[in-house]
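Dear H.,

Thanks for agreeing to be a second pair of eyes. The structure we're designing against is below in token form, covering all 471 positions.
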């Protein structure tokens, strides 16, 4: 059995049609060849029906906040995906919808020749919406496969209250799922002709392709992150060699940069949590390290976020918070906020707080904020916004626009964590009530604020095209 059945769901009642040309894998979120259960399932179906596999990946200009940063990161992964698929005998179609005038029915055209469509089971962003809308429009079987989580989401049957409730469930299930997936093998190689809408992406033409898209060109590519499988593996290897051993101590000192920086690659599916967990475990066994703290973040915290988004309709809504949080916000809704910053002031990092400004600048230029200061960043936005929903919307929008790991289950679960999700009540204070509070003094006591600010200032000076982000 190459893929555990509990990862797979059929979302329509249409049959498989083996008389057609290929099995279509529509890569929406897991944009990789390795350790991709959805692609493995497509290959298994193809082998069963003596067909080949066609891997389809698209990028449109129409999703909210489409911009140079997000487009570039994604496109940087494409040439390598194509190379790997070609050597595996799998066909590859990439379609870049540059403007709204470009056709928008490519999936449907490819599906007409497919014996079945397989895609990613993913609880947020456009994949969630596609998986609700598309299956009923097709005359062929439509399967979604969970290749995002180590333990399939379906195995946690209810919404979990906190890390302590999901942790023992995951621990019980992990031995079954924390294992190397079967190798990808197709019996029949793809020998079809590529459609004329296929967009050829090379390392050399990415800039030109991005420039031709009708998207927001004011958000430039990250100064630090290069997209793609090769970059993901390189960064993981660096982390294993240099930082895993002291992650437990170093992760809460942002100026030390001891965390793995895997979140952008995880979000774009260029590497999987399963592959990272296996690599970490292997490295730990070889070097006799204890790595529970890292696996707690990668598996428990991350899969708690997937669990949350899977069980709610609108993951960014504060109405999803537990009752104690709702009562708390009601009680403190009219507390005085002073100062209150506009979205523009926040976005362009213009507050009185030098640490907060540096964290926001990290978001502007790198496309993520170190996890420890990201909590502080969120808490301060609550303090400086007119009301709680405005604070949540600001955080979600800034993530949507600038974060390479935004629009992810982790985005919503962690932004709502700032309001009390998966947390517990703390001593009462203004504005926050019983939500956990984080102070500048606390950050100074526990971390090297000056070193972080200096590091971010150096990063900001790096490239001229970053300056427009602060205007
Ligand atoms: C307000 C706020 C917003 C956030 N938005 C995002 C987001 O948009 N995307 C995102 O991936 N994470 C988000 N996080 C969680 C966390 O900050 C990032 O996952 C982490 O900083 C990513 O950096 P890293 O890969 O170096 O993490 P590491 O410390 O190296 O951790 C490894 C992996 O574990 C997972 N992880 C780590 N911390 C958490 C956490 N608290 N909850 C769930 N999973 C975690 C991530 O997948 C991460 O890549 C947010 C946190 C806060 C407080």
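And this is the sequence the design step returned. I haven't edited it by hand at all.
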């Amino acid at each position: 059995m190459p893929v555990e059945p509990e990862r797979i769901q059929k979302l329509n009642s249409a049959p498989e049609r083996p008389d057609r040309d290929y099995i279509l894998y529509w890569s929406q979120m897991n944009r990789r060849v390795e350790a991709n259960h959805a692609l493995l399932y497509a290959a298994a179906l193809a082998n069963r029906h003596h067909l080949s596999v066609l891997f389809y990946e698209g990028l449109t200009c129409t999703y909210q906040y489409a911009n140079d940063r997000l487009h570039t990161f994604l496109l940087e992964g494409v040439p390598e995906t194509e190379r790997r698929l070609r050597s595996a005998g799998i066909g590859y179609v990439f379609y870049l919808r540059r403007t709204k005038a470009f056709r928008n029915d490519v999936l449907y055209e490819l599906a007409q020749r497919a014996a079945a469509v397989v895609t990613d089971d993913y609880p947020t962003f456009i994949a969630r919406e596609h998986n609700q809308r598309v299956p009923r429009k097709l005359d062929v079987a439509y399967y979604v496969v969970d290749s995002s989580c180590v333990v399939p989401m379906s195995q946690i049957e209810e919404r979990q209250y906190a890390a302590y409730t999901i942790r023992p469930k995951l621990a019980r299930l992990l031995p079954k799922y924390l294992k190397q997936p079967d190798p990808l093998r197709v019996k029949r190689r793809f020998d079809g002709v590529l459609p004329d809408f296929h967009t050829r992406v090379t390392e050399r033409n990415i800039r030109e392709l991005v420039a031709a898209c009708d998207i927001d060109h004011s958000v430039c590519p990250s100064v630090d992150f290069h997209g793609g499988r090769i970059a993901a593996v390189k960064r993981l290897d660096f982390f294993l060699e240099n930082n895993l051993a002291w992650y437990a101590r170093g992760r809460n000192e942002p100026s030390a940069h001891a965390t793995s920086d895997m979140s952008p690659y995880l979000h774009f599916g260029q590497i999987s949590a399963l592959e990272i967990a296996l690599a970490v475990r292997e490295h730990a066994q070889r070097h006799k390290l204890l790595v529970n703290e890292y696996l707690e973040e990668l598996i428990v915290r991350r899969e708690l976020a997937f669990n949350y988004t899977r069980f709610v309709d609108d993951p960014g809504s504060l109405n999803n918070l537990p009752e104690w949080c709702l009562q708390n916000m009601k009680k403190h809704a009219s507390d005085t906020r002073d100062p209150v910053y506009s979205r523009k002031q926040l976005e362009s990092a213009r507050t009185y707080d030098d640490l907060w400004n540096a964290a926001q600048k990290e978001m502007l230029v790198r496309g993520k904020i170190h996890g420890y200061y990201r909590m502080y960043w969120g808490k301060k936005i609550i303090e400086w916004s007119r009301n709680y929903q405005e604070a949540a919307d600001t955080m979600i929008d800034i993530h949507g626009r600038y974060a390479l790991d935004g629009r992810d289950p982790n985005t919503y679960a962690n932004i709502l964590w700032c309001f009390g999700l998966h947390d517990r009540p703390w001593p009462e204070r203004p504005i926050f009530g019983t939500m956990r509070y984080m102070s500048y003094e606390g950050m100074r006591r526990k971390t090297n604020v000056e070193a972080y600010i200096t590091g971010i200032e150096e990063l900001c000076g790096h490239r001229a095209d970053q300056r427009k982000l602060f205007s």
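Two observations from my side: The pocket of flavin-adenine dinucleotide is lined by residues 251, 259-263, 266-267, 297-298, 301-302, 305, 371, 374-375, 378, 395, 399, 403, 405-406, 408, 410-411, 414-415, 418 (CB under 6 Å). The longest strand covers residues 52-60.

Warmly,
E.
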